[in-house]
């Protein structure tokens, strides 16, 4: 590995770390099932029974909401709890002592998260297409993927902050505690217009609601609202700063 030089060296190392992390995660069936099946299962339980009375726009928006939920699940568990578990392993400590830098492993984690996010979308989209009236054009689908990428930035930062600042058991517990409240407050299970007034007032300030509105707007053409960009940027900056602090603190505590 030390003999690899130039641009190809970091790229090859990133690919090797990505492949290793994906294969390691795929060896844990419960992680794969929860990532790939749970969003589609939630959709089947909450949305499909009402599909007969839903318009194509409503069905499409419901699919987009669960896509954001899938991205949040990956951020909290694959990045948050997963990183915390890796930090406790002797193998992770060994990798961090090698003279190749931390960038390839860090980028590999982000790419792995993107892989499992896409994996979670496949059964969700299939169930939506087969059992509801949801429709999407290729252009809308591409816009939705880009919107999901933007919506996932603060969620990714949240996962990194959890993973690099807490021990494994605490990270898993916090991920479990945050998952459902963020999902309900963000309108990922129940559309915002079905929320009580007090919850709607709180909802617009959450990263999940801003992400939900951005993705549903991209896929349906509905107005996203003026709150989306400021909320996503604000949470991205705050959580990003916490994540950077946690990563630097972890590096300093363990190797200096």
TrEMBL record:
The chain crosses the membrane at residues 28-48, 54-77, 106-132, 144-164, 171-190, 227-247. It is found in: Membrane. The keyword Cell inner membrane does not apply. The keyword NAD does not apply. Residues 14-216 form the ABC-2 type transporter transmembrane domain. It is a multi-pass membrane protein. This is ABC transporter permease. Keywords: Antibiotic resistance, Membrane, Transmembrane, Transmembrane helix. It comes from the Bacteria. InterPro entries: ABC2_TM, ABC_2_transport, Nod_factor_ABC_transporter.
